[in-house]
């Protein structure tokens, strides 16, 4: 039924005249640009409010034109190309990063496909276009955008940008796998990869209620995909100066910043489409107002949901500190990917049992029993593994040697352990009494093998 509905809806696309397609394309571009300009100001205002600061308040009323002033300033800055850079790739990298960020919005529905609106007397849908594999198109476009960051890091001819580009590439690989598994769960329930069909399938219940684990996984992966805090390791100022965009200035740097914020809007729009009912009105409004999902009103609900997710991005930046890179990789490969795969298998099992007309209560019992068995086996495996790791001949904690670099990074001592003694210099009043050539000037050797007086 969902597949037939998707095919019927897709027949509404591709019939607009060329000038109307151009108008809709310009609207999509303008929507992204205006949302980005607003998001930059909103982020500064919200973070300032969280940190008890004023925030921008000079350019325009209440500082609303601050992001526009920043864009003009960046375009008037001196455009510097470093001497060791590969000039062709160096110039093309910001373009490669920015252009794919705008392309995903083409298949996002702003309104129902069956509810046409009038634009200059022409009836059309509130969506630029749709595809039977629209979600695969979004994944492909998101994968292309990472090439701009990688090429920017490589073409700069510097170590820190190269490390930032490699981090971004590894981060994309780690988090896009879990993102694809979260998408697959939505495909199983909607029966289609078309964005308009996925929204139509949420008529009775949003997928955030049916697939809460998929929603949480996608929320985490979309933050990692956009390189936003706390996953902004590709441009970590503490160890990479500025990451992949260290050697960029002027309009090229502005394009990287534009690509980041456009990606924020795009992934938020995808999240709204897949899990939050798309253009549908929230539950209390849709029950007592029949016209809430008709006309131009669906665009209002869609924009409000996107702004809510953008506020979530800002909230994370103002709340959580940046994670270490090993923690970032561990979360992606050891937590998100296994959880997303197991959840996908669970969703597929439930859908298969429902197709066999098995009662919902029986399905819940089967699934709960399987989950309990898996948890029990995991508990037993962890229990015996910890028993095997324990050393029966080890003495009390205070007698065990303490390694301050255990695991490759500094760690504090555990309870009962103490730091090894550190050789210290003699007090100043004793050093002042030392006579040149006297017995107190004997050469001592510290634990590192270097000689000191």
UniProtKB/TrEMBL annotation:
Q: Where are the transmembrane segments?
A: 18-42, 88-111, 131-154, 175-199, 205-224, 261-279, 299-319, 331-351, 363-381
Give EC number(s), comma-separated. Answer: 7.1.1.-
* Principal cellular location given in the protein's record: membrane
Record-level Gene Ontology MF annotations:
NADH dehydrogenase (quinone) (non-electrogenic) activity
Its keywords, alphabetically, are: Cell membrane, Membrane, NAD, Oxidoreductase, Quinone, Translocase, Transmembrane, Transmembrane helix, Ubiquinone
Q: Please give the superkingdom of this protein's source.
A: Bacteria
> Topology relative to the membrane, per the entry?
Multi-pass membrane protein
Which residue ranges are recorded for the region named Disordered?
Answer: 391-453
Keyword Translocase in record: yes
Where does this one sit in the cell? Cell membrane; Membrane
Q: Which family does it belong to?
A: Belongs to the complex I subunit 1 family.
Q: What is the role of the protein in this entry?
A: NDH-1 shuttles electrons from NADH, via FMN and iron-sulfur (Fe-S) centers, to quinones in the respiratory chain. The immediate electron acceptor for the enzyme in this species is believed to be ubiquinone. Couples the redox reaction to proton translocation (for every two electrons transferred, four hydrogen ions are translocated across the cytoplasmic membrane), and thus conserves the redox energy in a proton gradient. This subunit may bind ubiquinone.
Name this polypeptide is given: NADH-quinone oxidoreductase subunit H
Q: Which gene encodes it?
A: nuoH
């Amino acid at each position: 039924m969902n597949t037939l509905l998707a095919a019927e809806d897709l027949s509404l696309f591709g019939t607009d005249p060329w000038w109307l397609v151009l108008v809709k394309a310009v609207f999509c571009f303008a929507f992204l640009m205006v949302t980005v300009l607003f998001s930059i100001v909103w982020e500064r205002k919200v973070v300032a409010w969280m940190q008890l600061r004023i925030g921008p308040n000079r350019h325009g009323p209440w500082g609303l034109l601050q992001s526009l002033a920043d864009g003009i300033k960046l375009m008037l800055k001196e455009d510097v190309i470093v001497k060791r850079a590969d000039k062709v790739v160096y110039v093309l990298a910001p373009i490669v990063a920015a252009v794919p960020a705008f392309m995903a919005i083409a298949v996002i529905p702003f309104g129902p496909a069956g509810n046409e609106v009038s634009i200059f007397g022409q009836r059309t849908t509130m969506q630029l276009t749709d595809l039977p594999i629209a979600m695969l198109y979004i994944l492909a476009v998101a994968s292309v955008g990472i090439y701009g960051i990688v090429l920017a890091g490589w073409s700069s001819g510097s170590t820190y940008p190269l490390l930032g580009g490699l981090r971004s590439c590894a981060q994309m690989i780690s988090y896009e796998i879990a993102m694809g598994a979260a998408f697959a769960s939505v495909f199983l329930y909607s029966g289609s990869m078309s964005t308009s069909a996925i929204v139509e399938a949420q008529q009775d219940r949003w997928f955030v209620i049916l697939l809460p684990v998929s929603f949480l996984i996608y929320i985490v992966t979309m933050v990692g995909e956009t390189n936003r805090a706390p996953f902004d390791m590709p441009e970590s100022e503490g160890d990479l100066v500025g990451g992949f965009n260290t050697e960029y200035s002027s309009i090229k740097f502005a394009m990287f910043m534009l690509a980041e914020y456009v990606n924020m809007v795009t992934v938020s729009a995808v999240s709204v489409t897949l899990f939050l009912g798309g253009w549908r009105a929230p539950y209390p409004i849709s029950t007592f107002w029949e016209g809430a999902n008709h006309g131009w009103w669906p665009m209002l609900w869609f924009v409000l949901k996107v702004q809510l997710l953008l506020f979530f991005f800002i909230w994370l930046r103002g709340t959580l500190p940046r994670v270490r890179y090993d923690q970032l990789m561990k979360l992606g490969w050891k937590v998100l990917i296994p959880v997303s795969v197991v959840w996908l298998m669970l969703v597929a099992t439930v859908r298969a049992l429902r197709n066999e007309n098995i009662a919902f209560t029986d399905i819940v019992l089967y699934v709960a029993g399987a989950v309990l068995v898996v948890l029990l086996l995991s508990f037993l495996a962890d229990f015996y593994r910890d028993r095997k790791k324990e050393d029966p001949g080890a003495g009390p904690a205070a007698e065990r040697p303490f390694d301050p670099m255990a695991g490759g990074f500094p760690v504090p001592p555990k309870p009962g352990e103490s730091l090894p003694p550190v050789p210290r210099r003699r007090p100043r009043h004793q050093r002042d009494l030392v006579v040149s050539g006297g017995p107190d000037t004997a050469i001592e050797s510290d634990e590192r093998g270097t000689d000191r007086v």
